[in-house]
Fold this sequence. Notes:
Layout: E1 3-7, H1 11-18, E2 23-30, E3 33-38, E4 64-71, E5 83-84, E6 92-97, H2 99-112, H3 120-127, E7 129-134, E8 160-164, E9 168-173, H4 176-185, E10 189-190, H5 194-207, H6 222-226, H7 231-235, H8 243-247, E11 254-261, E12 264-271, H9 292-311, H10 322-326, H11 333-342
Parallel strand pairs: 2-6, 6-7, 7-8
Antiparallel strand pairs: 1-9, 1-10, 2-3, 4-5, 4-12, 8-9, 11-12
The site of one iron/sulfur cluster has 12 residues, from helix 8.
Amino acid sequence: MKVITIDKKDWASGLEKTKSAFQVFGPVKEKEWHSFKALGPGEQPDMAYNNTRLSPKFLVEPQTDPMFTYSLDEAKEGHHILKEVRKDIAPKAVVGIRPCDAAAFLLVKRNFDTPQYQDPYWLEAYNSMTFIGLACNAPCSTCFCTSAGGGPFNETGLDVLLVDVGDSFVAKSLTDKGDKWLSAGGWASATDASGKVEALKQAAETKITSNVRTDNLKTRPTTQLYDAPFWEDAAFSCINCGTCTYSCPTCWCFDIQDEVRGTSGIRMRNWDSCMFPMFTLHGSGHNPRSVKVQRVRQRFMHKLKYYVEKYDDGIQCVGCGRCIRLCPVNIDIRKVCNQMNDYDPAACVCPA
Ligand code: SF4
Ligand code: SF4
């Protein structure tokens, strides 16, 4: 592990050099929002941003991802045989990713890389990435990463952590991939800025005043939480738009569909959302989550109870706050999480 300093005067030229070894992505402002974009020659990331509107999960799991093509034309050779769509797995560097979003990939990895099966699409894309994190010196008011297992200077899931210390970035390499990225940029000035970095870290953590209580989630009986009286209230204003799930870095659900035009077909997977009424529609016409309150409950129970029980390693949320900022009707996961954590049916005075 090495720690070096990158003078901001040398940042742009070094980043240009890395583009010969990596396809570089970074936060770019479009209208009032930031998004991760591929950076062409001369293009620089905006390293003074707060966070992107959508999480960078699409870099590994695109919203629409072609998997196979096929032809139904019997006059063509190889008709009715699925042909894999080759993926670009050349090295990529995601520069300026926030610690919460990098940590989110490790939560999602549990779904795509299990002892029973490995998803080659997700894993190959993920393994091609080098994550260059940017510590949050000024977290948003809706961030609650420190009570979701992370923090504004968290290193989990990163290859390099950059800390903006004013005239320079302090770059801490955390993996071999991180070493390669720093070498590609030609940055090599060793530094010991641990005091300055620690002061910034403590100041950033102090700015996070938002939190969730999670200590009782694991032991609360599932059936009691499932039948709790607060779900109708939590779901009342939801319009099932799916914004919370699409913007969330830890939501991974997808659907596989065929698109056929004439005799040519593409099989692709698309993001899906447990908030959509058709998400659980069976071929028989039966829908076990046909009612809105069932879908809202599912989203929160999955993130805050089923996941907690299955992995015993925290909640399926990194506290990025996107779903709070973007929900059009102000549904707030912090409130629901605390209700679930504190729910005691014996003490409840709500009508059952
Ligand atoms: S963003 Fe808000 S309104 Fe839309 S589905 Fe999620 S909770 Fe419901
Ligand atoms: S705060 Fe919301 S959007 Fe962010 S990780 Fe948690 S559930 Fe997902």
